[in-house]
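seq:
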Amino acid sequence: MMRLLRNAAWWVRDYLYALRWQVNAALGRTDPREFTTGDLTPVVILPGVYETWRFMTPLITAMHERGHPVHVLPVLRRNRRPVDEASAIVVEYLAQHDLHGCVLLAHSKGGLVGKRAMVRDTDERRIDSMLAVATPFGGSRYGRVMVLPSLRIFSPRSATIVALSKEHEVNGRIVSVYGQFDPHIPEGSELPGAAKSVRLDTGGHFRVLAHPRVIAELINLSEEPQAAR
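struct:
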């Protein structure tokens, strides 16, 4: 009973957090080009489905203030495109802007897009690593009953999830962070062979973005020498 009450409380706080930042995203007017200045490792933002880059504004601002150029891709809009198509856009963006040694910061579906982009980027190696927060690498049982194609891809049996699960070569450059309880991904977000899998001491699918461990892991990926990781 206590576990159910705890999970219910996390669920409520999770959706309040999501509502707050969806509203802020809708009202935001910041020009994303303001974040592209800086001399440290480039950070590329990949939001979840039905999210714009503005949903991740707190992390974007924090990294830019540390001296990182932060790149968002408004062309992804609310990230409803198929994973393969979205990943091609990411790789094309990196090439057009001649970015190297990038760290991807991804939430939920953004982590699937990011992993596919890393596979596509194998030869150029413009992407160094990725921090994936609450990403359904193994899918979600709820995806099986979704009507919309943009949500049905999260089924563990979908072609997207099955294909990505067979791509192991980039897993060692991915850090996966997720909560004890995720109302959208009950299976969790552990990634076999990941550089690190971090299970937070809280729950949620959206609110975990605000956990201090997320920014700490992002700083570690983008500012620590690769040999020291």
